[in-house]
Write a structure and sequence with these properties.
Length: 92
């Protein structure tokens, strides 16, 4: 019985964390689009050009983020694999 309660608590906590992260990401995305549009509009003064720049910049940023995460994860994985050797006294 206790195990089921613990599993339910973990599920609720994971759901809360997921919802919080998604809300934060969506809010940041909207903020980013607003800033990109504002800067893009300020420079040429054209709504059409600002909209185009905002969309292209967002697309490029999304693709760059995908590759950045892949790079970061590989870097982090290598660091995690090196920890046991470092703990044993090896030098990097």
């Amino acid at each position: 019985m206790h195990s089921q309660d613990s599993d339910d608590d973990n599920c609720e906590q994971e759901s809360f964390v997921f919802e919080r992260v998604m809300t934060k990401s969506a809010t940041f995305g909207v903020t980013h689009l607003g800033i990109a549009f504002g800067v893009s509009y300020t420079l040429p003064g054209s709504v059409a050009l600002a909209g185009a720049i905002t969309n292209v910049e967002s697309l490029v940023n999304t693709v760059a983020h995908f590759f950045f995460v892949r790079w970061w994860d590989r870097r982090w994985d290598r660091s995690a694999q090196a920890l046991p050797a470092l703990a044993a006294g090896a030098t990097p």
